[in-house]
Automatic annotation (TrEMBL):
<dbReference type="Pfam" id="PF01814">
    <property type="entry name" value="Hemerythrin"/>
</dbReference>
<protein>
    <recommendedName>
        <fullName>Hemerythrin-like domain-containing protein</fullName>
    </recommendedName>
</protein>
<feature type="domain" description="Hemerythrin-like">
    <location>
        <begin position="8"/>
        <end position="121"/>
    </location>
</feature>
<dbReference type="InterPro" id="IPR012312">
    <property type="entry name" value="Hemerythrin-like"/>
</dbReference>
Amino acid sequence: MAASLLNIAHEIKLDHDNVRELWTRFQTASPQDKPVIANTLIREMAIHSDAEEISVYNDYARLGLPDTAEHNKEEHAEVKKLVYQADSTSVKHDDYDSILGQAVNGFLTHAKEEEDMQHPKMLAHLSPEENDKMAREFLKARTMVPQRPHPKAPQTGGVAQKAAGTFGSVHDKIIEKLEGREYVELKYRHPATF
């Protein structure tokens, strides 16, 4: 049974590692491959941020990180604005690589802070079963949130954000279908069943 328990820090870092790997891939990609990689980067950063806000951050106070959730939500709000700007700019724009790079760098700066400073504190307060439960809640949240950035949506982590996320998720799927957006495969994968 213990082998099947999930680790929340691992699942979060897996998202961070996908963004790192996608950014490296984008920087060396041909002009025709860049749009698909950029779509994937934007999708992954948007999903990750909202999923943390409606799941993991709600437990931070009881895990010895009382003011960290608000700090993280503020950082997410800034990153979401940058991701939205990249999503709203044509990949053919002369400064697109720089615009996307600002979003990725903001995301990865925040990710490093989580990995180095927050996750060790969080894990110290979790039993293996609580850790597994948080990881599964995070993975479930990833399936419920929008796939595109919505910086003006609620950032509360509560019911309002979940409701807006449900609406935004449906909206994003319709828009993406109409636009025919494509994505590249991710290098790192979450467990198929959680």
